Amino acid sequence: MEDNNLEETLVIAFAESKFRWRTVEGVSRQLNIPRDKIYKKLENSEVFIRAKKLNNKGLPLFALRQKYESETPLGIKILNAITNKIH
Asked: What highest taxon heads this organism's lineage (predicted)?
């Protein structure tokens, strides 16, 4: 899969998910794409953000920036910025 196609596929997967935050493992299973390829794309894209806090299994969490901004209440965004919870 080409790099641009991968980003587009990831955007769709994140946008259509009922979850705001996703793990690489979950997205990998959903799309049947290797975890390392997904992780590299998520880490190097301006379209996605990563939570500084890991999930309860110790896995990094990613969100589609646009979805985070549209679904997260302003107070939570301010709190996250103050507590430095997202990259």
From this structure: Bacteria
Longest CA pairwise span in the chain (Å): 39
Structural domains of the chain, count: 1
Strand partners, 62: 22, 50
Q: 32 lies in a domain? A: yes
H helices of the chain, where? 3-16, 24-31, 35-43, 65-71, 74-82
Residue 87 counted as domain residue: no
Low-confidence ranges of the chain (pLDDT < 70): 1-3, 87
- With CA atoms as reference, report the closest residue to 61 among 71, 73, 69, 49: 49
Q: Is residue 40 part of a domain?
A: yes
Range of the domain at 52: 3-82
pLDDT score for 23: 98
